[in-house]
């Protein structure tokens, strides 16, 4: 329990991360399961709440799209079903488009090269951030329309 509390004192962790770290430290799986159960009782391990918070944070602070958010959360050992539920609950197509547009405005403040070259560069940037192709295309269209005005 002391090792788990020490881990949680630095940052919030998913139950999967706690389990993995305890295992690496040599604790048996049975002991790790009982520690996680106790942490849940104390309110120190709450995967749904943490997952929802991270989805909002990754979207608003880092400007990630749903693909990159899902990948990042799975890397943090959240169950896939929980990740999908959190994404479904906290993001709509409009929010995805708004986040993509904001990421473009922030990245390309000085503007983009006109035509295909600029659009391709913007598309690669947004796709790398995990935005779906439709949101990339729409955000690029809005971005270029704003520049022309």
Model description:
By secondary structure, the chain is mainly α. The chain folds into 3 domains: 2-45; 46-91; 93-149. Helices cover 75% and strands 0% of the residues. The protein has 9 helices and no strands. It has helices at residues 2-10, 15-24, 29-42, 47-60, 66-75, 80-90, 93-107, 116-128, 133-148. Helix 2 packs antiparallel against helix 3 (29-42), helix 4 packs across helix 6 (80-90) and helix 7 crosses helix 9. The longest helix is centred in the last third of the chain and has 16 residues, at 133-148. The model has no long low-confidence stretch (mean pLDDT 90).
Features:
single chain; 0% strand; 149 residues; elongated; mainly alpha
> How confident overall, as mean pLDDT?
90
**Main β-sheet: number of strands, strand sense, barrel status?**
none
Please tally the helical runs, counting DSSP H or I stretches of 4 or more residues: 9
Beta strand %: under 5%
Query: Using DSSP, what is the number of strands?
Result: 0
Computed structural class? mainly alpha
Overall outline: elongated
Radius of gyration: 19 Å
Work out the helicity level: over 70%
- Low-pLDDT runs of 5+ residues are none
Could you state the order of secondary-structure elements as H and E? HHHHHHHHH
User: How many domains comprise the coordinates?
Assistant: 3
Question: In whole angstroms, how far apart are the ends?
Answer: 60 Å
């Amino acid at each position: 329990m002391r090792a788990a509390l020490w881990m949680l004192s630095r940052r919030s962790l998913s139950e999967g991360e706690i389990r993995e770290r305890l295992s690496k430290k040599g604790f048996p799986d049975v002991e790790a399961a009982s520690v996680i159960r106790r942490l849940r009782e104390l309110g120190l391990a709450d995967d749904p709440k943490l997952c929802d918070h991270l989805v909002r944070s990754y979207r608003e602070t880092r400007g990630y799209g749903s693909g990159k958010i899902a990948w990042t959360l799975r890397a943090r050992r959240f169950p896939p079903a929980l990740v999908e539920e959190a994404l479904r609950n906290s993001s709509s197509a409009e929010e995805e488009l708004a986040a993509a547009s904001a990421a473009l405005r922030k990245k390309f403040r000085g503007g983009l090269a006109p035509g295909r070259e600029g659009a391709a560069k913007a598309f690669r940037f947004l796709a790398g951030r995990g935005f779906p192709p439709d949101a990339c295309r729409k955000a690029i269209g809005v971005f270029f329309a704003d520049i022309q005005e």
